[in-house]
Specification:
The structure holds two protein chains of two kinds. Chain A is of the alpha+beta class. Chain A has a single domain, classed as Folate-binding superfamily (Folate-binding fold, 2-Layer Sandwich), CATH 3.30.2270.10. Chain A contains two helices and six strands, in the order βββαβββα. Chain A has a four-stranded antiparallel beta sheet, covered by helices on one side. In chain A, a hairpin with a 7-residue loop joins strand 4 and strand 5 (about 65-75). The longest helix of chain A is centred in the C-terminal third of the chain and has 11 residues, at about 90-100. Chain B has two domains: about 10-25 and about 105-180, Probable tRNA modification gtpase trme, domain 1 (Gyrase A, domain 2); about 30-100, Heterotetrameric sarcosine oxidase (Alpha-Beta Plaits, 2-Layer Sandwich), CATH 3.30.70. In chain B, strand 9 (about 135-140) and strand 10 (about 145-155) form a beta hairpin. Chain B starts with 10 loop residues before the first strand and ends with a helix. Classes of the chains: A alpha+beta, B alpha+beta. At the A-B interface, strand 2 of A face strand 9 of B.
């Protein structure tokens, strides 16, 4: 079972308490009427489908109920970090450097 | 299918040499939502300081307040104090806007005590219970059911469950209670 750190509860908890919420940092257009059909389709449906570190949303559904963001490696399922929903997007290069320092063998 | 369980009468649901499971009498329950700016006024109105760390509880005059989320609390009180709480919060509503909703009928409480109480909890709760300090509580999941798990003592737990899920959890606890005694 995955262990997920909730940035609001500040505890590392079993995956069963959480639900996955799709890709993070997708901003809704301020005025959807300005968008072309293709741009609106991209906003609604087109996602990056990353192989490797992926910025995504999670919700602590059976806990504090908050949405937060996480960076998870979609290959190894390893969480590089989790951060509050209103926090800025962390620098991936720094996260990867931190991760390789903790586990130099990988 | 899970058998019907009468949830209106407090009684012992299951008892063995290892652990005992009891249905507790009903209490008044409120769900409270408020922003950071309103917490001081609400603490004053309730007569209990609202805890600010998720999972912490404060208790005073038989009122129990548990912090469930950054802006969410659950308030438990004896049934005869329900009106007093509603009135006190309504009086400060204009100055400190908040949402106080009575949810007394939504949930029931089950108490689990005995030497193997922690073992019984682990059949449904995926958390590491050693990390749950005595006197605190957490909203978590119990065999697929969202529940508030209170740790009232090292061998004493309380589960707040939504009424409609209770028969399922109770039947699971009854089975666990018998199995732990057979070990």
């Amino acid at each position: 079972m995955l262990l997920v750190h909730c940035p609001y509860c500040d505890e590392t908890l079993p995956e069963l308490e959480f639900t996955y919420g799709g890709e993070a940092h997708i901003a809704r257009p301020e005025n959807p009427a300005d968008k072309t059909d293709d741009e609106w389709r991209d906003f609604l449906f087109i996602r990056t489908n990353v192989k490797g570190p992926h910025f995504e949303r999670w919700r602590h559904a059976h806990g504090c109920g908050r949405f937060f963001n996480a960076v998870r490696d979609t290959v190894s399922d390893r969480f590089l970090t989790t951060y509050k929903a209103d926090a800025p997007r962390p620098d991936l290069a720094v996260l990867l450097a931190d991760a390789s320092m903790k586990e130099p063998s990988k | 299918m899970t058998a019907h369980v009468d949830l209106n009468m407090a009684r012992t649901l299951a008892k063995s040499s290892a652990v005992s499971v009891e249905l507790l009498p009903s209490v008044a329950r409120f769900s409270l939502r408020a922003g950071t700016g309103e917490q001081t006024a609400l603490s004053k109105a309730l007569g209990v300081a609202l805890p600010t760390k998720i999972g912490q509880c404060t208790r005073k005059n038989k009122i129990e307040v548990l912090c469930l989320g950054p802006d969410e609390w659950t308030v438990l009180a004896p049934e005869d104090q329900a009106v007093k709480i509603t009135d006190a919060c309504e009086a400060i509503y204009a100055k400190a806007p908040h949402s106080l909703t009575e949810v007394s009928d939504r949930e029931i409480a089950i108490q689990i005590t005995g030497a193997k109480a922690t073992d019984l909890m682990t059949i449904g709760c995926p958390r590491d219970l050693d990390l749950l300090p005595v006197g605190e509580a957490r909203r978590t999941i119990f065999d697929g059911v969202s529940a508030v798990l209170w740790r009232d003592g090292s061998d004493e737990y309380r589960l707040d469950l939504w009424r409609s899920f209770a028969p399922h959890v109770i039947s699971l606890l009854e089975t666990g209670c018998a199995e732990l005694a057979a070990e």
